[in-house]
Amino acid sequence: MTVTSARRVDPIAADAVGNSATEAFVQAFGYRPTGVWSAPGRANLIGEHIDYAGGTVLPFALPYVTAAAVSVRADGVVRCVSTHEEQGWEGPVDQVAPGHPTGWASYVAGVLWVLATRGLLSAGVGFDIAIASSVPIGSGLSSSAALECSVALAVAELTGLPTTEPEDRLQLVTAAIRAENEIAGASTGGMDQSVSMLARSGSALLLDCRTFAHSHIPLDPARSGAALMLIDSNTPHQLVGSAYTDRRADIDTAAERLGVASLRSVRDVDAALARLAADGGERLARRARHVLSEMRRVELAVEAMQTDNLRLVGELLSASHASLRDDYEVSTSALDAIVAAALDGGAWGARMIGGGFGGCALVLCAADREEIIAAAVAQTLAAAEHPTPSVYVASPGPPARRLQ
Ligand code: GLA
């Protein structure tokens, strides 16, 4: 019998990612950057597909980061390169617009466009930017938010915008969200940019997506003899596509039919679901049931974390997965197989995270089950002829910051 094991991808130290960005900068532009900034990818403990419904979410920053090496130019031009991409992009800041540029550079240029539109960049200012990253792309760990936030923080600090207070960072969060929604054309909800900018090491970010009010909930599974594992199905995940937008549209329609600004405002859940179903909206009722039940699971998870009841947190993760799979229909057979194999292997709970349709699952287990579960998952996926999974470190890391 061949033994299949998951591929472990340990994080590269942020400083080393920063050094790669600096090298790429020197190679592309022939001089040293003024500074290097980093921003992390994220995982979400619980609160999935509810940020755009005004829900409260509980993500944390990962030790995988994107680094931006940046200098200011005086001619209104932006030039950007990335170690991941063959094609760089170059153009005047004032010609960035929805749909221009496209591809990875839209996340970079989009941030500049928003800041310029808000009058926060002086006319004629431009930038040289080189990107390096250890955030896996297409794994649902928010490589795009990490890219936007590293650039936003770099540009803000280089042009003298304040960045130290949470309110300052929230300005950059909203710039990154608009860049993604309006320039890159992905109608994502804002959780990813918020946690990339506002996270705290050793904590999850409890973020109310209606008001952006937030607090930090200690998340240190090792202290309780537990482990969090991120298992990548290695099946591609794309948000600039229709399925994510369709889910969001369903939730907007459900809110409209119920006459509320967002599903967060629903008080009587049973009555709301009955009303949606009676209107002939069986699908809408299921979509809303995911969102409303997930909002409740977040509250219960926070209570469970406060009493260190990680087994209960695990049960809530598994319930979240079932809801995302059955009611929201954003899981895949590979993600379902990871979750089932992890639970069979003794995990306390597991679920797909992020937008879905591929990407990663998060597993909560006793620390001494980690290896056994990773092996069981790899065997199950191999038997079903799914790609070999990767395992990432899921310890809560720091937010966007200056590295050099
Ligand atoms: C993606 C989006 C987020 C959020 C999640 C699902 O990561 O970028 O805004 O909607 O999906 O919770």
Give the SSE layout.
Elements: E1 7-9, H1 14-29, E2 35-44, E3 56-57, E4 59-73, E5 77-82, E6 89-92, H2 105-117, E7 126-133, H3 143-158, H4 166-184, H5 191-198, E8 203-208, E9 214-218, E10 226-232, H6 242-258, H7 269-278, H8 282-306, H9 310-326, H10 333-344, E11 349-352, E12 360-366, H11 370-383, E13 390-393, E14 401-402
Parallel strand pairs: 1-13, 5-7
Antiparallel strand pairs: 2-4, 2-14, 3-8, 4-7, 5-6, 8-9, 10-12, 10-13, 11-12
The structure holds alpha-D-galactopyranose.
Alpha-D-galactopyranose (GLA) is lined by residues 48-49, 51-52, 142, 188-192, 239, 354-355.
Quick recap:
The protein has 404 residues and is of the alpha+beta class.
Structure write-up:
With about 400 residues, this protein is of the alpha+beta class. The chain has two domains: about 10-220, Ribosomal Protein S5, domain 2 (2-Layer Sandwich), CATH 3.30.230.10; about 220-395, 2-Layer Sandwich (Alpha-Beta Plaits). The chain is about 40% helix and about 20% strand. The chain contains eleven helices and 14 strands. The chain has helices at about 15-30, 105-115, 145-160, 165-185, 190-200, 240-260, 270-280, 280-305, 310-325, 335-345, 370-385, and strands at about 5-10, 35-45, 55, 60-75, 75-80, 90, 125-135, 205-210, 215-220, 225-230, 350, 360-365, 390-395, 400. A six-stranded mixed β-sheet has the order 6-5-7-4-2-14, with helices on both faces. A five-stranded mixed β-sheet has the order 1-13-10-12-11. The longest helix is centred in the C-terminal third of the chain and has 25 residues, at about 280-305. It is globular. The N and C termini lie far apart (about 50 Å). The mean pLDDT is about 95. The structure holds alpha-D-galactopyranose (GLA). Alpha-D-galactopyranose (GLA) binds near residues 191, 354 and 355. The site of alpha-D-galactopyranose (GLA) has 13 residues, from helix 5.
